[in-house]
Amino acid sequence: MTLASPSEPSQLLPDPIKDSVISAKHLTKKFAGEAVVQDVSFDVPRSSIFGFIGPSGSGKTTTIRLLTGVYTPTDGQVIVLDRNPAQFSQGERARLGYMPQLFVLYPNLTVWENLNFAASLYGMGLFRGKRLKGALKFVELYEHRWKLARDISGGMLRRLSLAATLVHDPQLIFLDEPTAGIDPILRRKFWDHFRELKNQGRTIFVTTQYVSEADNCDLVGVQNNGKLLLVDTPQGLRHHAYGGDMVDFRTAQPFDFQAEAMLRSLSFVRAKTVRTGPDSMRIIVDRASTATPELMEWAQQQNIQVQAVEEYMPSFEDVFVELVRPEVSNG
Amino acid sequence: MGNFFRGMIRASSFFRKEIFEILRQPRLIATLVAGPFLILFIFGIGYRAQSRTLRTLFVVQPNSAIAAQDIQQYGQSTGSVLIYAGVTDNQNEALDRLHRGQVDLVIVEPGDATSTIKNNQQAVFTLYHHEIDPVQVSYVNYLGWLFVGAVNQQVLRSFAVQGQKDAVNLHASLQEAHQNVSAMRQAVQSGDEALAQQKQQGLASNVDDVSLAVGASLSLLDSLQQTKGTNGGNADPVQSTLTDLRQNTNQLSNSTGNKDERLARMDKIDKDITDLDGKLAEFQSLDPSIIVSPFRSETKSVANVQPSISDFFAPAVLALLLQHLAVTFAALSIVRERNVGTMELFRVSPLSAAEALFGKYISYMLFGGVIAAILSALLVFALHVPMLGNWWHFALVIAAVLFTSLGIGFAISIVSQTDSQAVQYSMIVLLASVFFSGFIMSLDMLLPPVRAISWLLPTTYGTLLLRDIALRGTDPNWLLLGGLAAIGLVLMLISWRLMRRLISSSQ
User: Fold this and answer.
1) Buried-most residue among A301, A309, B85, B345 (CB within 10 A)?
2) How many domains does chain A have?
3) The domain at B54-130 falls in which architecture?
């Protein structure tokens, strides 16, 4: 499996090896002798969104803490912004934004006071009101700015945490499950903003349990039981999960066994095909872009009337299950 | 924007945060102000500056030489501390009443006091009580000492009264001696030797009587003069005059030949008799109580005011409250950051330990200062606690107490893992302050090694310094104030190092 080098990187991504903001090499963290993160290696290119997905307890938060310098690795090495996080200067820390998994601000302060505290913590100047207002409007909390944090909902607290993380305009942003408890509409808005930040040159390292959100990332790391199973682009992940691209092939007449056997024998078709109906099959091919015209040509030769040939994009829930299945089976 | 300015902004984040969090708890502020004020107010009006009275039952043996009436009189002579609850001859019944709480004290008179004293031993009054409080036990012991002193005084007074009664007869003997000397002088001048001999014998008899009587009466006065040192060499002591009188009278009987010599000796005898008579008159004019108890003490303070008990405790309460407030707030402050999770945020942020601590110090100093100002104003203007010194000095001491107490609190907070631990440590500091800071008892009552604990507590310094400023009107003892500030500085450095480790180091 590919680790550091994505098989089909986004066009926007620079060469990750040359311009990585985060570089983890054989990172291991043990607590009381038990490894929570094991031999994890990856690079995060500048100006990208790196998604870190995995089930609860897979070591995502521990990894993010290793990257931010909250934890020191038991083994391995981590370089963030060209430096060991444990040796960050104040100036380098000011370039980071960190949103912990839980709300860690103050329940007895108002939304505005909490955000103001976070802004002061990063040394933002005295005329920061406009910036605070903008951050609160982005997370749709401006109307609630005088409410005490203890009086707002869990989702609102997450939004406040996100605003507090972004208010000082950091270069490298660590977000530990930022969309947990957020409604789908606002979640979409968050991701739009993350992409906007990326386009402005910011780098975002984001963990999530919503595997469907992986589609919003440039690169995705899949973590399970403390091990990093794979790092790839979203498309690359699908490819890895199923051993190729998936194409739905539908004909006008029902598909007979002879035709199915012939289809399977084609050189670009992988052995794993699934019949999804009497007149349709889901075929795994090396590459959907090249397989589609070849399929059309083959159908014409076989006098089969094709109704549709289209690439099937499995959900990331399915992709994730496929990816971790061997891990679960082994262990 | 410079690093220093950014650092100040980061520190200010804590300043604002802490102040807002406190202001969100108006009940807490009201309690901090009203609580101590009400305690002092109620204490001031409720405190009785009187000794505790004890209901006392006397046990007198049936055949005792001491009458029940005398016993009651003895009890009353100690003042109002012993309330006479009766006399009984049944000791067991008396002790039973003591156990049942019907009386507070049982005094058993010595069975055969006269025989004991004649055997050259002190007779013992036994006091039974039911106290377990060591302070109250000491009080009962003190009452026993007071009671026996009163009894002894009564006995001595009866001796003095008897002496004054005997002095009437003595005066008659001296008058008769004086007349015999006059008659003898006339007989010697007229050459009537037989009459002179007769009068001389009468005189000798009078002198013998006087010698005997003076031993029991005028010698008391003599002893008093010697004790006081008031004879000063001018007046002869009574015994000396008496010795002269006896010698002159004896020599008068031996010298029958020389007339001038006999007349001169008679003049001396006459003078001694006059002298003794004068002293006798002086003795008779004295109150028997004064004779047996000639001295008493009076205390006068050179302080500018004589504070009431609540006035005296007010500076100590203020110092203790401010210490406890600062220790508790600081102790909970960092441990809560850690438990809530903000410490994780701080570790990632550019915040330094010094900035976080500085912000917290300033906010709690300001808050404590405001509480101290309100409380001090209430104490001085509402409870009329004297404030004789300089308000700036007072404020300086308050600031030093808060600063040092915050150091203790932050050190506690950084080493505590949970809120409960921090609260427990704070309570231990409070308890130590109550016992060792001189709050309830003077530092002099502690052994010097134990006093080392006292000098680690801000309340000790605060109490002494605030009392000096407010109640004596003096400048603060700069050595004490410097010591307090030095402890605060050391604690701040320790807290800073611990905090640095907490924020900077990774796990």
Assistant:
1) B345
2) 2
3) 3-Layer(aba) Sandwich (3.40)
